[in-house]
């Protein structure tokens, strides 16, 4: 063993057992660990995302999910004006807020502009930015037509022109794949990294985000329709059935993800993340609303409560994953075992 390594060990950067130094763990998963790095240097950089990114993931999923449900309902011949109105205005608001959240996190608006200069099909961030642009513009046209139908632009020639020129069914169909991609690709954004907890679950991260986004979207629509006392009874029944199916699918995907993550999923149960993941996402966001959705006759009060719980749980889920990713990136053993699928290298291997 080199003198430098011996000096590091004597200074408390490691421990020796039977002549071999023990590998340290991340302080969130091992309280005995004193340092956060391997040889004083983090193996990878963790994402410096602030609160705007998990909020963007959340509202983007709601926008995509509301358009999906509304379009499918329209294709099946279920033409509920209240549902269309809620969906179109929701897409408009979420697609305005989404780029604002991204630009806010980037710090400088020109960085977002630079991403729009060229489309890189192999870049999740590039494809996501372009999907936001296209989905947002198509959703904006649909919202403009809806505003004209609702008389928000006045009863004038412009309103009549918008209603005649904007083909709602065609635009809804054109926007559908881009909306699905926005909801699906948020999972790809984080799984296409070297962060162990995210990269390990690359196959299930995107479907899980899509299911969670659809679940929060259905809850949002249910909440709006119940609070405004609008929506046809068959719409509310269809929403209720969709909510129950989606929350079961989401729970199954999260369970499968935990199995897939294996030991690299430990940060989700660490002291700082467990309240968000276990308390917020699993208990408040899935278990409690599932109990309300599957218990007895559905009432307006139960629907509102379950919707609020799902929305809060969906947001907590995204914050938990981002926070767990930081812990995973700062854990050298997690990175080296994930990268090599074997034990992390020992300091004496450096000699």
TrEMBL record:
InterPro entries attached to this UniProt entry: Electron_transfer_protein, NrfD-like
Superkingdom of source: Bacteria
Record's keyword terms, sorted: Cell membrane, Membrane, Transmembrane, Transmembrane helix
Primary location group: membrane
GO CC terms, sorted: plasma membrane
Biased segments, Basic and acidic residues type: 22-37
Localization annotation: Cell membrane
Sequence ranges of Polar residues compositional bias: 1-16
Annotated stretches, region: Disordered: 1-37
Membrane topology listed for this record: Multi-pass membrane protein
A matching Pfam family: NrfD
Keyword presence, Transmembrane helix: yes
Transmembrane regions: 55-77, 89-107, 169-190, 202-225, 245-261, 273-292, 304-322
PANTHER family named in the record: PROTEIN NRFD (PTHR34856)
Family to which this protein belongs: Belongs to the NrfD family.
Protein name: Formate dehydrogenase O putative subunit
């Amino acid at each position: 063993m080199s003198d430098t390594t011996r000096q590091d060990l004597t200074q408390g950067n490691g421990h020796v057992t039977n002549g071999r130094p023990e590998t340290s763990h991340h302080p969130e998963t091992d309280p005995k660990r004193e340092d956060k790095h391997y040889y004083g240097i983090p193996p990878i950089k963790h994402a410096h995302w602030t609160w705007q990114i998990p909020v963007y993931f959340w509202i983007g999923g709601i926008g995509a999910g509301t358009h999906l449900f509304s379009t499918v309902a329209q294709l099946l011949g279920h033409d509920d004006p209240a549902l269309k109105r809620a969906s179109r205005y929701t897409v408009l608001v979420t697609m305005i807020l989404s780029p604002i959240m991204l630009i806010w996190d980037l710090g400088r608006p020109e960085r977002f502009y630079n991403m729009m200069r060229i489309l890189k099909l192999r870049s999740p961030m590039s494809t996501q930015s372009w999907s936001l642009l296209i989905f947002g513009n198509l959703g904006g046209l649909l919202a403009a037509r809806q505003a004209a139908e609702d008389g928000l632009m006045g009863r004038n020639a412009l309103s009549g022109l918008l209603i005649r020129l904007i083909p709602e069914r065609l635009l809804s169909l054109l926007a559908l794949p881009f909306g699905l991609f926005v909801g699906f690709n948020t999972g790809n954004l984080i799984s296409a990294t070297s962060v162990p907890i995210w990269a390990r679950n690359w196959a299930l991260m995107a479907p899980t985000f899509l299911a969670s986004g659809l679940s929060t979207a259905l809850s949002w629509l249910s909440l709006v329709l119940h609070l405004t006392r609008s929506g046809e009874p068959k719409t509310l029944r269809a929403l209720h059935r969709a909510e129950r199916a989606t929350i079961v699918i989401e729970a199954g995907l999260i369970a499968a993800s935990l199995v897939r993550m294996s030991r690299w999923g430990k940060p989700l149960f660490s002291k700082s993340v467990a309240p968000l993941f276990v308390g917020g996402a699993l208990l408040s966001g899935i278990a409690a609303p599932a109990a309300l959705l599957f218990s007895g006759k559905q009432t307006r009060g139960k629907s509102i409560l379950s919707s609020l719980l799902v929305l809060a749980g969906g947001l907590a889920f995204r914050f938990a994953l981002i926070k767990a990713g930081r812990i995973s990136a700062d854990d050298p053993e997690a990175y080296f075992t994930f990268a090599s699928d074997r034990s992390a290298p020992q300091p004496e291997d450096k000699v």
